[in-house]
């Protein structure tokens, strides 16, 4: 997992981002202003910076100019096209506008880390091993066959492990917004994952919501 610096002056958002990134296994440090961000960068190596633009001391654009090429996701309430163009043209890896869904931030973090090769291409938990590059899954050393949607669902659960996901959200992430089926599709696929991987206890049912892959990181 990656070492991530969160630079956000709204305490509630700062804590929410930090908590969710830590839930999926990342190591996080958070600061509230641009000057503190640069001090952190000078004293520790980071794989990724989640950076607000409207900050005390120095704004996010000024901070970014001094990051020395560290992968960066701008996280900001400044949604105008010129601001987005400016952030991306400076070389930032992504630009996410507030308000945002935490699942989207987690997905964008994962995508940036994949591109910068800071995200492991292999995931292991107990008797289960997943090779994301080849989309191959092993249980107790034996390869397990999955349908494309079973694998996609498994990958979503792994990347969002320890976070409760509603059935509707899982449908959106795996089947897409235009899927016309119902949420029972999720239940059927979850049962198949549990059986194939002996994850009856790992994939927890969240009452009246959906599911959570519960794995220590």
Provide keyphrases for this structure:
single chain, 217 residues, alpha/beta, Rossmann fold, Arc Repressor Mutant, subunit A, 2 domains, 5-stranded parallel beta sheet, 4-stranded antiparallel beta sheet, 12 strands, 40% helix, elongated
Overall description:
The chain has 217 residues and is α/β, with parallel strands linked by helices. It has 2 domains: 3-115, Response regulator (Rossmann fold), CATH 3.40.50; 122-213, Winged helix-like DNA-binding domain superfamily/Winged helix DNA-binding domain (Arc Repressor Mutant, subunit A). The protein is built from 8 helices and 12 strands. It has helices at residues 11-23, 34-43, 60-65, 81-89, 102-115, 148-159, 167-174, 184-197, and strands at 3-7, 27-31, 48-51, 72-76, 94-97, 122-125, 128-131, 136-139, 142-144, 165-166, 203-206, 210-213. The strands form 3 sheets. The protein has a 5-stranded parallel β-sheet with strand order 2-1-3-4-5, with helices on both faces. A 4-stranded antiparallel β-sheet has the order 6-7-8-9, with no helix packed on it. A 3-stranded antiparallel β-sheet has the order 10-12-11. α6 (148-159) crosses α8. The longest helix is centred in the middle third of the chain and has 14 residues, at 102-115. It is elongated, with a radius of gyration of 19 Å.
């Amino acid at each position: 997992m990656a070492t991530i610096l969160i630079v956000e002056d709204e305490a509630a958002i700062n804590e929410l981002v930090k908590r969710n990134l830590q839930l999926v296994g990342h190591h996080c440090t958070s600061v509230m202003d641009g000057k503190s961000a640069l001090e952190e960068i000078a004293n520790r190596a980071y794989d990724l910076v989640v950076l607000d633009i409207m900050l005390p001391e120095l704004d996010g654009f000024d901070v970014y100019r001094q990051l020395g090429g560290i992968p960066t996701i701008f996280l900001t309430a400044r949604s105008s096209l010129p601001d987005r163009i400016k952030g991306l043209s400076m070389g930032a890896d992504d630009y996410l506008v507030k308000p945002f869904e935490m699942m989207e931030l987690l997905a964008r973090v994962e995508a940036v880390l994949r591109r910068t090769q800071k995200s492991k291409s292999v995931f292991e938990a107990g008797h289960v091993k997943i090779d994301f590059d080849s989309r191959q899954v092993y249980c107790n050393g034996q390869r397990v066959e999955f349908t494309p949607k079973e694998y996609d669902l498994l990958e979503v659960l792994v990347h969002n492990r320890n976070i409760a996901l509603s059935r509707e959200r899982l449908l959106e992430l795996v089947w897409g917004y235009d899927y016309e089926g119902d949420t029972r599709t999720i239940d059927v696929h979850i049962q198949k994952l549990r059986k194939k991987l002996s994850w009856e206890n790992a994939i927890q049912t969240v009452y009246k919501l959906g599911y959570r892959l519960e794995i220590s990181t």
